[in-house]
């Protein structure tokens, strides 16, 4: 009968550890996966509810651990704890920040602003362990000089965000990049 090996895959931005049955451990911070070199005769799977990590342990295969930063009171805020209204507000604010970054140094534009005739909207489309998915439309206008004439555009962006207790991340959306 072989000894057991518990391997942990380091996920992006997470810490990985490898433990053997004799109690020795090694810690890695890179995204690597360590395959077991020995296995037990009978694989067992244990799912635990840790207080500071999300962990799935399989003694004969590998263990993936992803640690979320704890909240101020020491508990982990699950992505599903974000309300629909908060997810909508945060995704619209994140899209406004995206537009600001795109336009703030655009010397080819005469002016730009939020608003216009496109309706601002946010719709929650899904809620998973990864977060709350929100589709947003954010209006904006800009003007650009062409000789003696100003061209004015009244448009909006469409984007998909995933919102967690810790962040709002733009998954995909219209590429807004003003060029001269």
Molecular structure report:
The chain is mostly beta strands and 180 residues long. The chain has two domains: 5-66, no CATH class; 79-173, Nuclear Transport Factor 2, Chain: A. Helices cover 11% and strands 43% of the residues. The protein has one helix and eleven strands. It has one helix at residues 84-103, and strands at 5-10, 16-20, 25-28, 45-47, 54-58, 62-66, 111-114, 121-128, 131-146, 149-163, 168-173. The strands form two sheets. It has a six-stranded mixed beta sheet, with no helix packed on it. Strand 8 and strand 9 form a beta hairpin. The radius of gyration is 24 Å and the shape is elongated. The N and C termini lie far apart (70 Å). The model is unreliable at 1-70 (pLDDT under 50).
- Determine the CATH topology of the largest domain: Nuclear Transport Factor 2, Chain: A
Our measurement of the CA-to-CA distance between the termini, rounded to an integer number of angstroms, reads 70 Å
Number of domains: 2
Series of H and E elements: EEEEEEHEEEEE
| pLDDT averaged residue by residue | 68
């Amino acid at each position: 009968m072989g000894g057991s090996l518990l391997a942990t895959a380091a996920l992006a931005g997470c810490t990985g550890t490898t433990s053997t049955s004799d109690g020795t451990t090694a810690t890695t911070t890179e995204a690597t996966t360590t395959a077991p070199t020995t296995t037990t005769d009978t694989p067992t799977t244990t799912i635990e509810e840790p207080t500071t990590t999300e962990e799935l342990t399989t003694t004969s295969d590998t263990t993936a651990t992803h640690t979320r930063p704890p909240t101020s009171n020491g508990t982990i805020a699950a992505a599903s704890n974000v309300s629909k209204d908060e997810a909508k507000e945060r995704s619209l604010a994140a899209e406004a920040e995206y537009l600001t970054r795109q336009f703030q140094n655009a010397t080819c534009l005469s002016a730009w602003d939020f608003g216009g005739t496109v309706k601002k909207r946010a719709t929650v489309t899904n809620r998973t362990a990864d977060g709350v998915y929100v589709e947003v439309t954010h209006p904006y206008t800009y003007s650009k000089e062409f000789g003696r004439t100003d061209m004015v555009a009244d448009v909006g962006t469409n984007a998909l965000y995933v919102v967690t207790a810790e962040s709002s991340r733009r998954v995909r959306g219209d590429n807004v990049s003003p060029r001269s």
